[in-house]
Amino acid sequence: MAAEPMTVRSPQYVGARVLRVEDKKYLLGRGRYLDDVVLPAMAHAAFVRSPHAHALIKRVDVSAAKALEGVVAVLTGEELAELGSAFVTELQRPDVLSVTKPLLATDKVRHVGEAVAIVIAESRYLAEDGCDLVEIEWELLPAVVDAEEAISGDAPQLHDDVPNNNVAHIEFATDGVDAAFAAADHVFGKRFHCGRSHAAPLETRGVVADFDLGTEQLTMWSSTQLPHFLRTLIAPHLGLSEGDITVIAPDVGGGFGLKAHVFVEEAIIPLVARRVGRPVKWVEDRIEHLAASGHAKEIVMDVEIAVSDDGRFQAFRGRYIGDGGAYSGFPWSCLIDPLPAASLLPSLYDVRELGYTVDSALTNKCQTTAYRGPGMHPGHLARETLIEDIARKLKIDPVALRVKNCISSEPYVTANDMHYDGGSYIESIELAQELVDYAGFRREQLAAREQGRYIGIGFSPFVEAGTWGSEGARALGFPAEFYDTASVTMEPDGTVTVTTGTFSHGQGHHTSLAQVAADRLGVRLESVRVVDGDTSKATWGAGTYASRTATVAGGSIILAATDVRDKLLRIAAQMLEVSPDDIELYDGHATVTGVPEKTLPIATLAGIGYFGGPLRPEGQEHTLSATRYYDAPETYSNGVVVVIVEVDIETGAVELQRVVAVEDCGTMLNPMIVDGQVHGAIAQGIGGALYEEMVYDDAGQLLSGTLADFLYPSSMEIPSIEVSHLTTPSPTTEGGMKGMGEGGTIAAPAAVVNAITDALAPFEPEINHTPVRPSDVLALVARGPAQRTPKP
Amino acid sequence: MVAEGDRTVCGRPALAVVGQAALLSLGHLPDPLGAGCSALTRSALLFLVKPSRFNYARPTSVEEVIGLLAAHGDDAKVLAGGQSLMPLMNARLARPELVVDINAVAGLGDIEVNGALRIGSVVRQRTIERSADAARIAPIIAAGLRYVGHVGIRSRGTVGGSIAHADPAAELPAIALALDARMAVSGPGGQRTVAAEDFFEGLFATAVSADELLTAVEVPRPPAAARSGFVEIARRHGDFALAGVAVSFEYVDGAVRSARIACSGVADRPLLATAAQDFLQQEDANDPRTFAEAGRRAAAQFDPPSDIHAPGSYRKQVIAVLVERALKAAIEGSDGADEARR
Questions:
Q1: I need a surface site. Which of A126, A130, A680, B202 has the fewest CB within 10 A?
Q2: Three-state SS across A588-618?
Q3: Would you say A16 and A515 are in contact if contact means Cβ atoms under 8 Å apart?
Q4: Which residue, among B125, B169, B165, B122, has the nearest Cα to B145 in the 3D structure?
Q5: H/E stretch holding B202
Q6: In whole angstroms, what is the distance from residue A131 CA to residue B54 CA?
Q7: Hey, is A427 helix, strand or coil?
Q8: Fold of the domain spanning A295-472+633-783
Q9: Domain ranges within chain B, ordered by starting residue
Q10: How far is B15 from chain A (nearest CA, A)?
Q11: In angstroms, rounded to a whole number, what is the distance separating the alpha carbons of residues B2 and A224?
Q12: What is the mean pLDDT of residues A313-321?
């Protein structure tokens, strides 16, 4: 389907930098988050969590905790298992093993922070006092914290039904890949270890559950990205039907993929609320959040590129070992990182011979979950840093080397059958070169080196697999149905209510999706209200993650609004005595094209739609409402992130001097919101490059248990980010939108690392690990062959 | 919930939690794993964020404070700005029975200039950062404070609290050492003053005993030719330093005299780089090699600890650079803020 204009005139709202309708609420401090939910007679929960990485539970003594005044109940893993069923994570593919996670640990714990018991009390203070009194006798087991070692056959086993601690071994190869490597002029390879990260949103997880003993219905609030999907997935574990559950996602203070999962706590809190007969609240503390929610992105990668003498990439090969932690995150599984890393190996390069293997190790660490650009960010780092190394070794400019091997702007099918829908792959690189004055920078760089200053530039062009419709998910290796639904209702007074199964948790959907509906219906933006985040109010949907909302929710709203629009056109045509084809809906009015005096307010048409009797076209249903689903086809954004750094070779400090982004996500609903997504995504990418890492010691003790240890960049560390746009509308999606929001996180880490590599070129550095700390930089300088230039 | 960017909330105490042995070595904190439990019978206290029950007192005189401390000993803790104690209590790493809030104690919030600069122990870091008296007598204080957390933290955190907490990577203890400050300490036996060199005894340990209170920090009036500089390197702005250097000296006719070079992040407490100080006393400060050599001699003196942010070898290497840069910054009259990077 071509990207058709949304109205006869150019759109009134789509593409405009409309101010966010959400801002007033947040700026006034009127957001209502999970912890703001307060119910009568509400009790508070705290969890007793494991201090050990791997241990058998020999005995749990809760008697002292139960005896404490103010404690309402204490439940162990055994007791929880009687109330609800364990989580089983499985992908719909035969080469992936299922992994079971009990609600609370019963026989053994597999990572520091795993929940063992829950204490319900009159206050959180008392609940924690109760946790203090729970005594557990442990028998310590040896722990494995290295992914490669975990699957070596020689490591402690975490789960009896996951042999070798390997959830999946997946292989892909084109027929000629080995021959291409054998015949190549050059084969370059490197091992890259992307550090273990954490989405670490400002608002941690949290659940409030209220089970009504009279109606036997459950209302639960959760800080989640996917309220409907949560209800669908949690109901079987609670022994309830979906119809008996209402899930409400209040304002959510960041998710970044982590909250696009279902966690055991989301089953436990409703179960205990029903058990104690009172509403129960649990707000995750920061330490549990860092230790026991979801880690991300740790993959050990071996990537090889076969290259001809003149710098043509002939084949790519990769081996990806993901460190999934102790369990397989529900529902996406621990493949959420290594599989997209491997699938997107070709990126924007025209390479017909391709091979990769994926292993997904279980280790005695926290489970992994999605975090903005899952897998794609590490995979991109491995490939793009290798390309940088190749350029230096072959003495080819790194940008020229990329352009030389880049696909054209036309739709392209990769060697592993990903269907790109066209983009500005080379054009975006060229625009970025112009924006940073690449040639000028190279001159400046030489002059700086003369003065003993080390500045460098890193280019990181990317293809972003966003949207997550059924096709897109399958292309990344996750075969299931993913779509979304929307209802569009014009009320009798002509205002519009849109409901969607996606959920805005900071992205401004109540603005951008309203822009879509307003244009389609020809009404003013302030007439449109978007409702989401409540399963009792909005249509079913899979939620917001994977850069999918503009495309799938936008598409479903276009379809539903078109149905309503058709009714309005018929009413208007009857009233104005012309054909529906001659009616234009714009800015709240229906007008005969070219005859501006023949016009009616759309509110009048709405009134006729509901109450117009004979004025309503014959046979037309009462009311003006439609519900439609949309499953977007594969679509891919693209762009470039360029970073300029100065490296202090005496302290290892890296200063980001300039960050330039070019983004092409097809039709932009609201370029201001797109800019915000680019800013945020790049900031998190910079975090990945320089700061964020969850560190365990050899015994599986977590060393990054606080935000003084797990560092993410603050506003002080992020320079101003310059964003430019190219627009190549998708030829396949409704409206021409492509999923966006993760490209910056995917691409910025490699841009930063490549800029450091470039700055330190005289030392011939090879960076093989992120984050790059000041001490790592000094180690690169020390290893290099260059003499330190004496300072002037 | 813990606020983002509040380094003390998320801070080093909790880092120590996870390195359990390190925590136990602190001595003045309770065994986090539950005293009396066998090795295999431990509650998981790592995951608590609300303090255990405590009593609270808000005395108005130093005498009352001393009386309470004397009566409760190790079971009492002094609350000033709360930037270290509250996170420790929230994680139940500190479980005082009594919290003695000294914010209402008369006189502790005063800044006096009487020859020396006397900074009461609950003077907020932000207040002294903006004090004209401090800028005149000891500009290095403001220069160093800019590296302490963020404005919000400095608006709460106190000068005395940071010095009494004695984090080995903190800015104010190193600055106090460089300035040869004296700490006024009150106890049941009256008042005494302790030189900075004798004050810091180890990791989070000072010369203040359980029944004593740090009441003020006294900075001597500097000679006319005094120079000072502060530089540090941290992973992020506002983090505890990987390493930092505060220098103070007299600059007379191109010579550096009476130098005090205090280094943070190099040991369990801030230390003076005495070998570098002695070297500078005899050398020509106009020779660009002099400060570099002083840096090398400073580094040679230390064997800094490692953590997840940097190995000790890095700290050792970078302390040489920071000493050189701090000396240069002091001579050039810049406060060091720009010198940290370059």
A1: B202
A2: CEEEECCEEEEEEEHHHHHHHHHHCHHHCCC
A3: yes
A4: B125
A5: strand B200-202
A6: 17
A7: helix
A8: Aldehyde Oxidoreductase; domain 4 (3.30.365)
A9: 111-219, 226-332
A10: 7
A11: 20
A12: 98
**Within an 8 Å CB–CB cutoff, is residue B299 touching chain A?**
no
Question: What pLDDT does residue A570 have?
Answer: 97
Residue from the list B7, B50, B309 with its beta carbon closest to the beta carbon of A125 = B50
Q: Distance between alpha carbon A664 and the CA centroid of its chain, in Å?
A: 18
Chain A residues with CB under 8 Å of B20 CB are 701
- Give burial (CB, 10 Å; 0-12/13-18/19+) of A335: buried
Topology annotation, domain A34-141+204-252+259-292:
Aldehyde Oxidoreductase; domain 3 (3.90.1170)
Tell me whether residues A705 and B18 touch, CB distance under 8 A: yes
> Which residues neighbour B79 within 8 Å (Cβ) at sequence distance 6 or greater?
B85, B86, B99, B100, B101, B102, B103
Give the lowest-confidence range in A83-87, A315-319, A788-792. A788-792
Please tell me the CATH code under which domain A23-31+483-630 is placed.
Answer: 3.30.365.10
pLDDT digits (tens, 9 = 90+) for A71-121: 999 999 999 999 999 999 999 899 999 999 999 999 999 999 999 999 999
Q: Is there a shared CATH topology between the A23-31+483-630 domain and the A34-141+204-252+259-292 domain?
A: no
Task: Suggest the residue from A281, A694, A706, A710 to mutate for an interface test with chain B (most B CBs closer than 10 A).
Answer: A706
The CATH class that applies to domain B226-332 reads alpha beta
Task: Show me where the domains of chain A are located.
Answer: 23-31+483-630, 34-141+204-252+259-292, 295-472+633-783
Helix pair A671-690, A743-759: axis angle to 10 deg: 50
* A413 close to B (CB below 8 A): no
Check CB contact under 8 Å for B42 and A775.
Answer: no
Contact criterion met (CB < 8 Å) for A704 and B308: yes
DSSP A17-75: -PPPTTHHHHHTT---BGGG---TT-EEEEEEE-SSSSEEEEEEE-HHHHHSTTEEEEE
Taking contacts as CB-CB distances below 8 angstroms, the residues of chain A near B317 are 778
Architecture of the domain delimited by B111-219 = 2-Layer Sandwich (3.30)
Question: Side chain identity at A445, as an amino acid letter?
Answer: Q
d(C-alpha B233, C-alpha B236), whole Å: 8
- Does B130 touch chain A if contact means CB atoms closer than 8 Å? no
